[in-house]
Specification:
The complex is a heterodimer of chains A (411) and B (251). Chain A has 411 residues and is mostly helical. Helices cover 65% and strands 1% of the residues of chain A. In chain B, helix 2 (42-54) crosses helix 6. Classes of the chains: A mainly alpha (411), B mainly alpha (251). Bound molecules: protoporphyrin IX containing FE.
Chain lengths: 411, 251
């Protein structure tokens, strides 16, 4: 890597004393990137941009929002009705939450398919799992802020889960609430945390990228970069590709913002919270449905809570459950089949999460939950023992040029 | 396998929406404010306001709407001042520290029919008429449901259906027993524009008015949305062309 020359005097002066421009040049412009990314590699940068959109719209919303049980609901409506372009801010933020999860879930499953969690990227993967956990906490508390019926009852149901903790359960729940039920103190602290956690996320994303830039990106072939012939500089190639991807995402996102802003929401959340009236079905936001299904699949309360948190925490040890040295599912015929079965299983869990826990839904929910854990704890280790991977191409550049046909076949 | 997953996902989504509602699904009605180019019919809004003011406002509040907002749907300033002045609001304290009542002004919010929920319940056999400001957003089916509810009353419940005291039968209310008596009857209001005041007409008009009360930003939202989306689509197409140009020398 050559040291870039800076023409602007001020830039040169700063860079001499603190080489921030040189750093940015190395990490964002020169940065050698495998030349064979497909569009699934767009979702990381998209997630980062959505985070920024959430923070910016959130800060402006917070200027007109009132975290008080008597005013929160009305203040959100005042934002929509009376603040200039307040409706735009609110709908960008509200739908941005859903878009964020869509993007991050795709990003995560991309990692599962192409084995991006394997050595030497285990820590990068773990940071990603932490990001998704903090995201879930942020979104959960954000959903409470408009203080509608679903806000209130989701907060009640989820915080109550902690009462399953042996001995200290009740005390923990009272401590979380700041009282004896979800009430004004709860709303206040949720607002405080909802403002804080996105910045924690930002820091985690920074660490995630730091870890990424040490061993650099994985790629659809899952093989290591052998030399400069395998890579291209990040700019302009991937900057323009990411910008194009961003355009596509924005069309999708803005369609909901402008033409169907309540598509992802629940009608009940347009009714102000009322502790005396329980909604007939309490359902979480769509991105929590699979976890909700797992929670309810286990007949024991504590067991359900452990399984629910376990379903995401299990991803932390995935790099050690999967012993196969081959990363990409393109060369792992058996793993590939089970990857898709897992995807179907997650959709089934999401569907069950939206259903009342009765009759056949309970049985399906239990099977899907059992399968989820079976996939990670049994199937993955077994596959890595018995599977015979297809031969790997020699290098990215041979695969991209003459071996292209063979690789196509393997997908 | 990937295709199979997509199909499974589509089935899951379809099954989820198909079985969601337990009360009979309200038939879908053609509303002028739906769709990408939708906007509110001004004449219907005006008539709908009249139905709300003369009928529903006897029981239902509309707390999130201010009298001044009526100017957004074509009422003149004088009309709004006059509408507002028919209501009394509590104000104060004055210089002597006393609270006093005064006629409402354009800036005041719609004065509710009852001073508090208990009074509203007391006057309605123990059930609370909900605030209607967000009613079309707060029910599954939205405006279709509201219209179906208002036109879905039956004098007699179907044979064998046990009614509780003080309840009336409605085809679309979940559980069918509603404590709101049928609110609309033919010629209950006299429209200034001469439209015949059938139950269907009044129900449709008041639904349009309440849809506006729930989403007053709808027209601004959609007209900005079309511009923003067109811009974004063109920009994205250009970015794609640029991407192709830049990548032409790779491989
Ligand atoms: C990780 C990023 C974030 C996520 C996933 C997120 C998620 C959410 C969600 C799901 C809601 C409820 C939407 C609704 O139904 O109205 C919400 C509301 C809210 N959020 Fe965030 N948020 C994020 C960042 C922020 C930040 C950084 C701030 C402030 C600095 C903020 C301030 C607010 C406020 C004031 C509300 C209530 C207003 C409203 O409900 O529209 N958010 N957030």
């Amino acid at each position: 890597m050559t040291k870039p020359q800076w023409n602007n005097g001020l830039v040169r002066w700063i860079d001499d004393r603190m080489p921030i421009f040189t750093l940015m040049h190395h990490e964002l412009v020169d940065y050698p990137t495998p030349k064979n990314f497909n569009y699934w590699w767009n979702f990381g940068s998209l997630a980062g941009i959505v985070l920024v959109i959430m923070i910016v719209t959130g800060i402006f919303l917070a200027m007109s929002y009132t975290p008080h049980v008597d005013y929160a609901f009305e203040s959100v409506e005042r934002i929509v009705r009376d603040v200039n372009y307040g409706w735009l801010l609110r709908y960008l933020h509200m739908n941005g939450g859903s878009i964020f999860f869509i993007v991050v879930y795709i990003h995560l499953f991309r990692g599962l398919y192409y084995g991006s969690y394997k050595a030497p990227r285990e820590l990068l993967w773990i940071l990603g799992v932490l990001i998704i956990i903090v995201m879930m906490a942020t979104a959960f508390m954000g959903y409470v802020l408009p203080w509608g019926q679903m806000s209130f009852w989701a907060a009640t149901v989820i915080t109550n889960l902690f009462s399953a903790v042996p001995v200290f359960g009740e005390a923990i729940v009272t401590w979380l609430w700041g009282g004896f039920s979800v009430d004004n103190p709860t709303l206040n602290r949720f607002f405080s945390f909802h403002y804080l956690l996105p910045f924690v996320l930002f820091a985690l994303v920074f660490l995630h990228l730091w870890a990424l830039h040490v061993h650099k990106s994985n790629n659809p072939l899952g093989i290591d970069v052998k030399g400069p012939q395998d890579t291209i500089p990040f700019s302009p190639y991937y900057t323009i590709k990411d910008l194009f991807g961003l355009g596509v995402l924005m069309v999708f996102y803005l369609f909901f913002v402008f033409f169907a802003p309540d598509f992802f929401g629940e009608p009940d959340n347009y009714i102000k919270a009322d502790p005396l009236v329980t909604p007939t079905h309490i359902v979480p936001e769509w991105y929590f449905l699979p976890y909700y299904a797992i929670l309810r699949a286990i007949p024991d309360k504590l067991g359900g809570v452990v399984a629910m948190f376990g379903s995401i925490l299990i991803l932390l040890i995935l790099p050690w459950l999967d012993r196969s040295k081959v990363r990409s599912a393109r060369f792992r015929p058996i793993y590939k089949q089970f990857f898709w079965i897992l995807v179907v299983d997650c959709f089934v869990l999401g569907w069950i999460g939206a259903k009342p826990p009765e009759g056949i839904y309970i049985t399906i929910g239990r099977i899907a939950t059992a399968y989820y854990f079976l996939h990670f704890l049994v199937i993955i280790p077994l596959i890595s023992m018995v599977e015979r991977p297809k031969p790997l191409p020699e290098s990215i550049s041979t695969a991209v040029t003459k071996g292209g046909a063979a690789v196509k076949e393997a997908t | 396998m990937a295709r199979l997953t997509l199909i499974a996902a589509a089935l899951v989504v379809a099954a989820g929406t198909a079985t969601a509602a337990e009360a009979p699904k309200a038939p879908s009605h053609d509303w002028g404010f739906q769709g990408i180019f939708g906007s509110y019919d001004r004449a219907a809004l005006r008539r709908g306001y009249q139905v709300y003011a003369e009928v529903c406002a006897g029981c239902h509040s509309l707390r999130l709407v201010a009298y001044r907002n009526l100017m957004e749907i074509g009422f003149t300033e004088d009309e709004v001042t006059e509408i507002a002045s028919e209501f009394e609001v509590l104000d104060g304290p004055d210089d002597e520290g006393e609270m006093f009542t005064r006629p409402a002004k354009a800036a005041d919010y719609f004065v509710p029919p009852f001073p508090n929920d208990n009074a509203a319940r007391f006057a309605n056999n123990g059930s609370l008429p909900p605030d209607l400001s967000l009613i079309t957003k707060a029910r599954k089916g939205g405006p279709d449901y509201l219209y179906a509810l208002l036109t879905g009353y039956r004098e007699e419940p179907p044979e064998g259906f046990q009614m509780m005291d003080g309840m009336v039968y409605n085809d679309y209310f979940p559980g069918h027993q509603i404590s709101m008596p049928q609110p609309l009857f033919e010629d209950m209001v006299e429209y200034a524009d001469g439209t015949p005041a059938t139950v269907d007409q009044m129900s449709e008009d008041v639904t349009v008015f309440l849809a506006w009360a729930g989403s007053p930003e709808l027209e601004a939202r959609k007209s900005l949305g079309i511009k923003v989306l067109l811009f974004t689509i063109v920009l994205t197409a250009m970015l794609y062309a640029l991407k192709r140009r830049i990548w032409a020398d790779v491989h």
